Each structure stands twice: as C-alpha cells, then as structure tokens.
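Lab meeting, item 3. Inverse folding demo.
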C-alpha cells in the first residue's frame, strides 16, 4: 500500500501551523487517521479532500477570493497557489485528476453553465486539447432548444455557481448527468466532476 506523509499532504493544501492541527482534528473525527499517525494511505486522499473541503474554505488575501458570509465553513488563509478560488497549483492538480477520471469513464465532453469569465478561461486553458468544453454563459440564449441541445451533446454537465446566468438557463439543465457545484474555483468544479466520474465507474452504470 502506498502512503505519504500526512503533514506534507496538508501543507501542500495550505494547512500549516494552527490550521494543520485543525485539519488533523477534522480527519480524526472522520476516522481517516488517528493521533500519532504520521503517514496516510494514498487511496484515502480523495476522502481527506472531501472532509477538508466540507469543513474549511481556503482563500488567499484577494478581496475576490474572500469567502461569502453564507459560507459556514471555517476560513483558512492560504497562498494564492492553494486558494480555492484562484489557486494555480491546486487547480492544475484537480484538473489533472478530473481529466484522468473522465478518461476512465469514457467521457470527453463537458458542459459548464455559469462561472465567471476568468474562471471559465482558466478551466479552458487547463483542459486544452484533452477535453471538449462548451459553456452556457450570460450570452447563451436561455431556451430549452439551445441549452437542451448542448446538454444532449455533453457527457456530463455542471451548473457552476449560477449567479451569472439566468434561472431560465439553469432550468433547462435537468437530468442524471447534471451536477451542481455551488463553490467557486476551478478546483471545486474539477473535484466534483472527478467524484461523479468515480461514482459512475464504481457503480458500473454507463450513465
Ligand atoms: Zn485567491
């Protein structure tokens, strides 16, 4: 069984010092590790990221990335590299994992509704040449014909923090392949898609 250093795993995600202790406590509560353990099995990383993602919101100093008051998660100040909203290395890692999971599921077409122009651009660049992406934006005609057509084309569709697109547009996105990602940030979207792909593969269902 492959394992890695627990403190390296946490510091790579921006949990250091006091926040490393907080993160460890949440992992103890989730029974993913216990006090005294210094290494963790690689196959637990997905579960670790889920537990940490549910308990903490990692943000950098930029105003744009400051968590909203409605976010009940504990805020953790991290460098821009690890920021959930704008993080460079985090986004890259998450997209790599999403691309690999989609490949395993046999999916190549990702439809994304919402997100900001900046985050859409980041996602597009990271997926370049490997996945086919289409976007429902504020400029897309919000009717069933247009959006239903795009949905039909896709292997998986994501409604991504739908604040910038109309309800009419998101209303046209329904069905088993539609996923809602309420969090900003490329990594949040990529992790959600990866998890859906893995569930799909595990259950053996084709769609
Ligand atoms: Zn940021």
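The presenter then showed the designed sequence:
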């Amino acid at each position: 069984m492959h394992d890695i250093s627990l403190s390296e795993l946490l510091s790579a995600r921006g949990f250091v010092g006091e926040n490393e202790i907080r993160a460890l406590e949440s992992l103890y509560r989730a029974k993913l590790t216990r006090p005294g353990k210094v290494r963790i099995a690689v196959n637990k990383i997905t579960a670790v990221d889920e537990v940490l993602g549910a308990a903490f919101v990692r943000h950098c100093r930029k105003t744009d990335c400051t968590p909203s008051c409605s976010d009940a998660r504990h805020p953790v100040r991290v460098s821009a590299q690890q920021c959930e909203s704008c993080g460079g290395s985090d986004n890259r890692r998450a997209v790599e994992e999403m691309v690999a999971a989609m490949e395993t599921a046999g999916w190549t077409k990702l439809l994304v509704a919402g997100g900001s122009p900046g985050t859409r651009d980041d996602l597009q660049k990271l997926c370049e040449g490997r996945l086919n992406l289409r976007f429902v934006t504020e400029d897309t005609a919000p009717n069933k014909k247009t959006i239903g057509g795009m949905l039909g084309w896709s292997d998986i569709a994501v409604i991504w923090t739908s604040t910038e697109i109309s309800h009419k547009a998101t209303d046209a996105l329904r069905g088993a392949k539609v996923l809602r990602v309420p969090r900003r940030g490329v990594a949040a979207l990529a992790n959600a898609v990866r998890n859906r792909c893995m569930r799909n593969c595990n259950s053996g269902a084709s769609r």
